[in-house]
Write a structure and sequence with these properties.
This protein is mostly helical and about 80 residues long. It contains 4 helices and 2 strands; from the N terminus they run H-E-E-H-H-H. Strands 1-2 form a two-stranded antiparallel sheet. Strand 1 and strand 2 form a beta hairpin. Helix 2 packs antiparallel against helix 3.
Length: about 80
Amino acid sequence: YIHNYLGKNKKKYPEVTFVKSKDGKSVDMFTDLRNQIAHYEQVNDYDGYREIGEKIPPLVIRTLVKVINDVICESMQDVKKKL
């Protein structure tokens, strides 16, 4: 859901980048990060898992929180409209 939301709202979040995944699809930076973390989990590479966690900059975390907050607020507005 977040990936689709970001695709539709690129202008709202200029700090969000999109990259090509291994299968050639365009994914947002959060999906790419999640995929990297999941890979380390699957292969039980705890050093890689820890290293990637240490490399996540505060800007990425702030941006993710902003996006999640906006998605929740917009969803709540949609719920209120239906009531």
